[in-house]
Write a structure and sequence with these properties.
homodimer; DUF6073 (chains A, B); mainly beta; 14 strands; 2 helices; globular
């Protein structure tokens, strides 16, 4: 992320949650020593990610696409040094995932620059008194789905809610996660944003990867 | 709704879906003859609503509140005259619900005027070829939760997703519905919108009421 991009990040017009001050945060690459059940110092995690998303295009059909890519997640200073009661807030500050599907061609998923995608790791209320509770992770994401073959870019107006349960360390590398989509989440044409939905996201299953190098990230960006 | 309010409605900055042109739409009150499995002409439905919402306030606890009130829902021209393939888009243009809970006092839920709350009725893709399929209804809502006793107003940044299944007529008066909340939906202080979440909505069950009179609506508004 360039300084200009980081600056723009700090001046988003629409945010779904608290904005994290990126100044002074280290970008974290492998190897990292992540301690379980321990609130970590703040930083920016560079992680792999894979996702299987299903789309419904009215009058065309449903199709399912496997994606591979990376995310950069900025984490706040935990609200407490104690695992059970600490909240950690997150901003998804960069993402690129690539997938391909016959007939549709390549789909490139990136962050929507008009939205600040935000999240939170928190111990479920009912588990606060447990000895070593797992945390629950949630993030509200605004994405662009670029389809070069169709000369089309879709985006969501309601956030895509990504959740990871059973989080025993931060970041939850290797954990499976789910997009909490109830039947349909409308997607809109970027060039006709006020029009009717052009397609729908109907399901999303993902898996957080582990720390990856900047060279691998640049490889994903270049496709 | 006054002309000025309607004008403001047409100029929302943030919309979660398509905006409905309110000009020329009739406000519909009882009695109404609603035909099942029939795409209706556009209009504004004035309906009763009841809801049971649970809130989590960190370091205070969880509490559940029963609400009663009304909604005004603007409906678009259906995209087709045929029930199965028709989509109907909606805007929630007015809402007031009142509930009370010991310790917290009265809670008044109204629309967030900074957001256009939008929704859609649509036949699930898998049911398109059925003879008389039920439709699914979804709406993304931005609300204010005013708590006069605590001198506090909370609001949501991510939409509250309300869904109604098994819709056999439009509007789905009398149908039960659910807020699709996965564990927690953050709520923020209206006077500190960029701060950390002040509370969480943890569940929401509602029931659409039937057409109600303007006199009853005014009674709800006056409390």
């Amino acid at each position: 992320m360039t300084t200009v991009e980081a600056f723009n990040h700090q001046n988003k017009k629409l945010a779904w949650g608290p904005q994290i001050d990126l100044s002074g945060l280290d970008y974290l690459y492998p190897p990292q020593n992540v301690k379980p059940y321990t609130p970590p110092p703040p930083g920016v995690d560079n992680l792999g990610i894979s996702s299987t998303d299903s789309f419904l295009v009215p009058n065309v059909g449903e199709f399912t696409v496997n994606f591979e890519g990376y995310v950069r997640v900025a984490r706040s200073q935990p609200t407490s040094n104690e695992w059970n009661t600490s909240d950690v807030f997150t901003n998804l500050i960069d993402m690129c995932m690539r997938g391909e599907e016959s007939g549709i061609g390549e789909i490139i998923v990136t962050l929507n620059p008009d939205v600040l995608s935000t999240g939170q790791l928190r111990t479920p209320h009912a588990d606060l008194a447990c000895e070593k509770p797992s945390k629950a992770c949630r993030m509200a994401v605004g994405a662009l789905f670029k389809m070069p073959l169709l000369n089309l870019t879709l985006f969501n107006k309601e956030p895509i809610e990504l959740t990871i349960d059973d989080v025993r360390m931060i970041p939850p590398a290797g954990n499976p996660g789910e997009g909490r989509i109830y039947q349909i989440l409308p997607l809109f044409h970027r060039e006709n944003p006020d029009g009717l939905p052009a397609a729908y996201l109907t399901s999303l299953q993902f898996r957080m990867g582990h720390y990856i190098t900047e060279a691998k990230i640049q490889g994903i960006l270049q496709g």
